[in-house]
Amino acid sequence: MSKIKNIVVLTGAGISAESGIRTFRDTGGLWEDHSIEEVATPEGYAANPELVLGFYNARRAQLSSVEPNPAHTALSRLEKGLIGQGGYLTIVTQNVDDLHERGGAENVIHMHGELLSQWCRSCNHKFKSSESFTLQSQCPKCSAGGKVRPDIVWFGEMPYYMDTIEMSVTNCDLFVSIGTSGAVYPAAGYVQMARGLGKQTLEINLERSEGSHFFHETRLGKAGELVPAWVDEVLNG
Ligand code: OAD
Ligand code: ZN
Question: What atom of ligand 1 comes closest to residue 95's alpha carbon?
Fold first, then answer.
């Protein structure tokens, strides 16, 4: 690969798997035990808000018992290394955990929202909290009760920061996808956008993703092993 300055990394649940967070579509994944319609759509929330709050409360509570793994910390090392070389790294994550940040990365875009962010549907206020929420929980700004929902992008809703992400892809030299099945759009389509713009593309995943054929190169294996090795290559190459 020629000298690379600016990189966009798209991450999915696979990068957090070795930290102990379940993925969605693998064997044993979250969508085996839970119906997407029930816990990851606005209609599901309207039908049974308690069930939905409980699902995200449990996932939020888990954050305090997991740690970033070598893939997260390697990306933080890459971010600092690229900045030192006059470039930059943009991490676009579909993950709602905070492991990129706890691994030391700063430029992280959460396109599907964050477990640690809450959203009041009465006054539109968004706020950080690691607590559990019930239908009795009040908004800290307008005091409305029962109106605080997880700040998570559900199916049928528009992902966040799409303009920023598209600009980052447009300005990058290399687009890398790590630990995502490529099943959910628009995230799954960024590789095609990158290819169309003439960018280099690389996939790092346990198995071939649905859009694997769009990538120039695919490396199969665990993110915790392959990502640190790839970061070394970029920074030393
Ligand atoms: P998936 O569960 O669909 O895919 C996870 C991918 O990670 C699979 O391709 C696995 O092979 C791979 N994988 C598992 N362990 C790995 C490891 N140790 N190292 C490398 N790769 C590994 O998760 P996502 O692609 O992130 O959206 O799912 C995308 C979106 O679908 C999520 O953001 C979520 C979900 O529904 C919403 O909830 C809106
Ligand atoms: Zn409010």
Answer: 33
Nearest ligand by distance to the CA of 121: 2
141 Cα to the center of ligand 1, angstroms: 35
- Ligand 1: residue whose CA is nearest its atom 37: 154
Cβ of residue 206 lying under 6 Å from some atom of ligand 1: yes
- C-alpha 36 to ligand 2 mean position (Å): 27
How far is Cα 193 from Cα 176, in angstroms, rounded to an integer? 12
Distance CA 42, CA 201 (A): 34
Mutate to test the pocket of ligand 1, among 11, 23, 202 (most ligand atoms within 8 A of CB): 23
Q: What angle do CA 210, 215, 219 make, to 5 degrees?
A: 85
Specify whether 112 is catalytic: yes
What is the pLDDT tens value at each position of the chain, 237 positions in all?
Answer: 457 899 999 999 999 999 999 999 988 899 888 899 999 999 999 999 999 999 999 999 999 999 999 999 999 999 999 999 999 999 999 999 999 999 999 999 999 999 999 999 999 999 999 999 999 999 999 999 999 999 999 999 999 999 999 999 999 999 999 999 999 999 999 999 999 999 999 999 999 999 999 999 999 999 999 999 999 999 998
pTM: 0.97
Select the CATH number that applies to the domain covering 6-21+68-112+159-236 from these four: 3.40.50.1220, 3.40.50.1110, 2.60.120.200, 2.60.40.10.
Answer: 3.40.50.1220
In words, the CATH class of domain 22-65+117-152 is: alpha beta
Indicate the residue type of 79. Answer: E
Helix axes 70-84, 223-236, angle to 10 degrees: 10
